Amino acid sequence: MQWSAGNAAVSLTVARQKPLQPAVGQPLTVQRSPSQASYMAGAVKALFEHGAITTTTERARAVHQVAEGLIRLAKTDPAAGRRRAQQLLEDEDLVEKLLTEIVPRYEDRTSNYIRMLKLGPQSDGSQQVLVEMIDA
């Protein structure tokens, strides 16, 4: 880009930003901020402890994805599931509950361990969703 300011010609180079894309062969991963990760861990803990939570649609989708992934991993590879659950939940009693009570409940299911039911709008207009574990 060039323009002239009086007698002197000024040239500027505009750096083009590359779009954020992973390298070839790398999976698309979601990077969560520490506050998002903390909320996610707390919401998944509450879901496993109580069987149901109420939250907004966007958060419900994220909690659904994380909780289903933990259950699926614990079903296919119990050792890896235990390590991942300990990393996320940081509660040994809840990890034991996941492996001894929750995973055996879904032994005959291949997916869809958690259901999301729309409850209606909140006072600020955001959609409320009930996230609950399906009784197998």
In short:
Helix content is 46%, strand content 21%.
Give your account of this protein's structure.
- The protein is α+β, with helices and mostly antiparallel strands.
- It has a single domain (34-133), classed as 50s Ribosomal Protein L17, Chain: A (Alpha-Beta Complex).
- 46% of the residues lie in helices and 21% in strands.
- It has four helices and five strands; from the N terminus they run ββαβαααββ.
- It has helices at residues 34-50, 57-76, 78-89, 92-105; strands at residues 2-5, 8-11, 52-56, 114-121, 127-133.
- The strands form two sheets. Strands 3-5-4 form a three-stranded antiparallel beta sheet. The chain has a two-stranded antiparallel sheet with strand order 1-2.
- Strand 4 and strand 5 form a beta hairpin.
- Helix 2 (57-76) runs antiparallel to helix 3.
- It is globular, with a radius of gyration of 23 Å.
- The model has no long low-confidence stretch (mean pLDDT 84).
Topology (elements, then pairings):
Blueprint: E1 2-5, E2 8-11, H1 34-50, E3 52-56, H2 57-76, H3 78-89, H4 92-105, E4 114-121, E5 127-133
Antiparallel strand pairs: 1-2, 3-5, 4-5
Helix pairs in contact: 1-2, 2-3, 2-4, 3-4
